[in-house]
Each structure stands twice: as structure tokens, then as C-alpha cells.
Design goal:
It contains 14 helices and twelve strands. It is an alpha/beta fold. The longest helix is centred in the N-terminal third of the chain and has 33 residues. The chain is globular, with a radius of gyration of 22 Å.
């Protein structure tokens, strides 16, 4: 065996291991610093329209939506949108309307499409129904407390702020699969997002919450401007920053309810995320694969002649991940049980594998649709069933016109 080659290999793994260690220490420090920030309460409370695009019911939709309907806020309305009147979410919205007659709730059914992004097709149909100039968009799997709107809208008091966004943490209501999904959000995405905001100016948004004024949305071309992009939230923030306006990160942390029931669903969901990150920031995302210290250390143990040094690195990274998981959880106001730390190596291996797979293809699944992600982050339907369905939809829209209904 070539001693020089082995020594060079050890040096490479050692360097990566040190960088990984430094990254996680910095990430933990960023999370702690973020939670120490004041909530930024303010008397600025303009009337707000909350936009909620919906599709299906995962069993937690009622609780998620209800949390947005019982806000401690002077004047607000919530507009729910579906593209099919037979969608199971319609029944959930109907229940909320019956239970909360004093809250301004409306349901819009509109099958109009403005692009290839399924979510933006839905959202674009809601804006025209909004009564107020302050708009807040949030995904259907998010859950909030009564102080949410006050905290989120507060940064808009500054005219230099064009868009407000929020970070989110994952909550696993059932099973190992949803727990693995929550671990990815809490233990990789959340700290990575905060490190990114420390390195440079925030120029993108997160789907958990996007708040803006109507004139800002109009200035960037409306939701139609991102209707063909996979990362619509990212692009809304980018277009806003390009107009010379600031993207503000609110101190509020939204709760993301992870309802995946099977590994297959979770796999394709996270592969879509991975290919989103890769399409937007290929260089930085490539480097992010070095943050998975546990699988890299195991690879070092398997391939290196310096077994003792590699083994020490493995123990250090496992210990850091275990401690870091507890620290991060407490910093965001959650308690992490030590009983689930055995999932850490599994979670890190899956994340690392998904990161590698993100560079080996450009197809994603979103609901029952299949798309390809272009190098500029735009979506295009895959040939075959998806293309035929799109063509059929265009023919139907041409012959019958778009179906638009509003229920109050």
C-alpha cells in the first residue's frame, strides 16, 4: 500500500472533519443568538389578508388552518384556495366557517393556471379576492400561535422592507418517518439557514411565511413572475431584493407539521427539496455535503489506514450531533428526547445520499405531477402523462373557460 497516498487521504479527511466541526459549532451559536433576539412587538397593525393555498387533507389540516383563524390581531381575513371543488380541503374550510362565523373567512375555487408551479397556480387566483394591502402567504402544513400576525407584520412598518419571511421547525405527530422528516428541518435546514443569513444579506424567502405589501408584489410582477419556478419562495425574495428592498427575517418560528406516512413519500419530497437547493446554489450546496460528519467519518474509517484518528473523528462527530440536537431543540423552544438519538446516523446518511442524488438527475415529483428542473430553476412537465394532462387542461379551459367560485 502506498504510504504517501494513504497519508494524503488522511489529510483530506482530517481537513474536512475539522471544517465540519467548525461549521456545527458556528451553526449552534447562530441558533442560540437568533433565539435571544427580542420578538420586536410593535403597534403597527394594518389590516391583513392571509392567503392559504390548499390541496388535500393530511389529517392535520383542520388544526393547522384554525391556528391562522384565531389570531390576536385587530383586522384580518383568511382566504383559502383550491383548484378543484371536490378537494377534501373544502370540507375542512366549511367546518371552520361554521365554527367561526365572526371571522372573515372565504373559500375560492378556481382552476385557472398561470404556470407549471401547482402552488403558485392556486395562490395567483387568490390575490384578486384580497381586501387588504398587507398580504401574508403561508403553506397549509404550518401551524402558529395567536401572536403570529403581529410579529410577522411588524417589520413592514419600515418602508425599506419589501418582504418578511419566517423560519420553521418540524413537528412529528406520528411514527419514525415523520420524525426523520422533522429531523432534517430542525437539525440541518434550520441551522444552515441561519448560518447563511450571517454570511451574507438575506435575499430569499421561506415558504413557511411570506409577508409583503400589495404594491411590492405588483412591482415584482405578481405571483405570475414565479409561476414556472420550482423555488417560488426563494424567487419572491430574490425579485424583491432586486428592486432595492430588504428581505426581513422575523423572529417568529412557525411550526411545520410533518405528516408523511411512508418512506417513499418522504424520499420524493426531500429529493425535490434537494434538487431545489442544487438548482439555486449548486456550488454552496456541493460544499454543504461536507457538513455530514458522521457518514464522512465512517467513510474515512473504511478507507483510511489511520484507523485510530478516523475513529476519534467518528466519535467526535456523533457526540457533536447528539449534543447539538439537544441544544438546537431547546433554543427553538422544543424538547428533544435522547431516546431518538439513534436516528441521527440514519438521518445523516439519508440526507447525504439525497444530496448526491440531487446532482444525478433533474426530475422531481410534486403531488401527482412529474416535472424536470431546468438549470435556471424553472419547472417543465415531463413528457408523457404530465404533458397530456396539461394539454387536456388547456383544451378544457379554452372550450369551457376557467371555473371560478367564491364562498364566504
Amino acid at each position: 500500500m502506498n504510504i504517501t497516498a494513504v497519508s494524503l487521504l488522511d489529510l483530506v479527511f482530517l481537513s474536512v472533519s475539522i471544517l465540519t466541526l467548525v461549521y456545527w459549532l458556528a451553526a449552534i451559536a447562530c441558533v442560540i443568538a437568533f433565539r435571544r433576539q427580542p420578538l420586536g412587538a410593535t403597534h403597527f397593525s394594518p389590516p391583513v389578508t392571509v392567503l392559504k393555498p390548499l390541496r388535500g387533507d393530511d389529517g392535520y389540516l383542520y388544526e393547522n388552518l384554525r391556528s391562522f383563524c384565531v389570531q390576536d390581531y385587530p383586522t384580518y381575513e383568511v382566504i383559502f384556495g383550491v383548484q378543484d371543488g371536490r378537494d377534501p380541503a373544502v370540507a375542512v374550510v366549511g367546518r371552520l366557517m361554521r365554527e367561526l362565523p365572526d371571522v372573515a373567512l372565504r373559500l375560492v375555487v378556481d382552476d385557472r393556471r398561470v404556470g407549471t408551479n401547482p402552488k403558485i397556480n392556486n395562490v395567483a387566483n387568490l390575490v384578486g379576492h384580497a381586501k387588504h394591502d398587507a398580504l401574508v402567504l403561508s403553506d397549509s402544513d404550518m401551524r402558529v400561535t395567536r401572536s403570529y400576525l403581529r410579529t410577522v407584520v411588524a417589520p413592514l412598518a419600515d418602508p425599506a422592507v419589501g418582504l418578511v419571511t419566517c423560519l420553521y421547525y418540524g413537528v412529528a405527530p406520528r411514527g419514525v418517518v415523520s420524525r426523520l422528516g422533522a429531523m432534517f428541518i430542525n437539525e440541518w435546514f434550520f441551522p444552515a439557514a441561519l448560518v447563511s443569513t450571517r454570511i451574507g444579506r438575506l435575499r430569499h424567502a421561506f415558504g413557511a411565511t411570506i409577508g409583503c405589501r400589495r404594491d411590492t408584489l405588483h412591482a415584482i410582477g405578481g405571483f405570475e413572475a414565479v409561476a414556472d419556478h420550482l423555488a417560488d419562495d426563494y424567487m419572491l425574495g430574490w425579485l424583491t431584493s432586486q428592486r432595492g428592498l430588504r428581505v426581513a427575517l422575523a423572529t417568529y418560528i412557525v411550526e411545520n407539521v410533518i405528516a408523511e406516512r411512508g418512506l417513499r413519500t418522504l424520499f420524493f419530497h426531500e429529493l425535490r427539496w434537494a434538487r431545489t437547493f442544487r438548482a439555486l446554489r449548486p456550488v454552496s450546496y456541493s460544499w454543504s455535503l461536507c457538513t455530514y460528519g458522521v457518514p464522512l467519518s465512517l467513510l474515512w474509517v473504511a478507507t483510511s489506514g489511520a484507523a485510530r484518528l478516523a475513529s476519534v473523528a467518528l466519535v467526535v462527530h456523533i457526540g457533536l450531533r447528539c449534543v447539538g440536537r439537544i441544544v438546537v431543540s431547546r433554543a427553538i423552544g422544543r424538547r428533544a428526547s435522547w431516546s431518538h438519538t439513534w436516528l441521527i446516523p440514519i438521518r445523516d446518511f439519508v440526507s447525504c445520499a439525497l444530496g448526491i442524488l440531487s446532482f444525478l438527475g433533474d426530475s422531481v415529483r410534486w403531488g401527482d405531477g412529474r416535472f424536470r428542473v431546468r438549470s435556471d430553476g424553472r419547472l417543465e412537465p415531463e413528457a408523457g402523462v404530465g404533458a397530456r394532462a396539461r394539454l387536456a387542461g388547456r383544451v378544457r379551459s379554452t372550450l369551457l373557460g376557467s371555473k371560478r367560485e367564491e364562498f364566504t
